[in-house]
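**User:** You know discrete backbone vocabularies at least as well as I do. Would you mind producing a protein record, from residues through to fold? Write it directly below this note and I will take it from there.

**Assistant:**
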Amino acid sequence: MKYLPLIWAALARRKLRTILTLLSVTAAFTLFGLMMGTDAAYRQMVEVINRSVVVTFARFGDNLTDEMGQQLAAMPNVAAVSPGGSVFGYYRDPKTQAGLMMVGDEAGWPNVPLSHAQWAQWRARPDGAFLSRQTAAQWGLKKGDVFNIVDKNTPRADGGQAWRFQVLDVLDDTPYWVGGFQFGSYQYFKMSRPPADQPKAGWFQAVVKDPAAAEDTAIAIDARYANSAIPTDSISERMMRVSSGDFFVNVAAVTRRVAAVGLFMILLLTAHGMAQSVRERLAEFAVLKTIGYSDGGVIALLFAEALAPAILGAGAGLGLAALLAARIPKLLPSLFLPEPYLSPLVLAEALLAVVLLALLSVILPALRLKRLDVAAILSGRT
């Protein structure tokens, strides 16, 4: 407690410098929170991905067939296979792109957040849709509403382009489906298409018995169809999500590097500020040593002076990062980034960064104070 008046006096000595330092630290830790929060959210998203799902696409664009689905179901390590498709076009306005993932049966889609009762609803209402809260808010829909998706690229048996859906329920968002989700029934998708297209699927999801062998199963599937009329590309869903997240940019590398650069810049600023403050107050430190303050006590005082604005700025910066987190996915929609998550680990890393920032910024000034010639300073010879 005896240091508090001295710390306050030191910070108040150059108010403008203290305020600018505080604002700079706030900006740096806002960037730190957003970057490290994005990295934490991305790692959380990868961790919750179902490791038992292998996805199979046609390599050259030809639709897969129901017969291939039956063949996949008979392969070793495959417990269930289900088809998937999509209706993609626009909702209300041609400028508003929208679509639904059309999913097959429950056994083949363990990654869809539906209960048994909700799966059963599709049997009674094939044109039903399940939306996440985020999607429902974007489209302005609620449970029971009817809406149309105009898809000009997916032929319908009736010759139309509008796909009619009714919202069966609006569900909570999940880290598994970044940016929200929207699901329709594959049975409705299949039966609404022309008879010639009904046996064709956009892709197949295979649920494997041993998740550890998911990648081996993907390789075996592609080997089976390598010389067929419809060669395939198969990949575990976990690997697909990780690869898609790194397709445009390596999220983990970029976020950590940007956060590190921000902290390095603020380190230079605070270190310069502390060095200048010590130069201006050499006589004051000499007096403190004269009246009995040890080298350790003077250095501790200096460390506390650096730590105080760092803690205040870090707290303000992380709070601002939490307020801005929801806007990040909207600013970079093409990267499909999750909302930054200020996890306990991120907060612990921020606290460690604060301590290191304060410690590193006082190393050189502390060495100068340790070698301080008290007599020379007080006599005015230096």
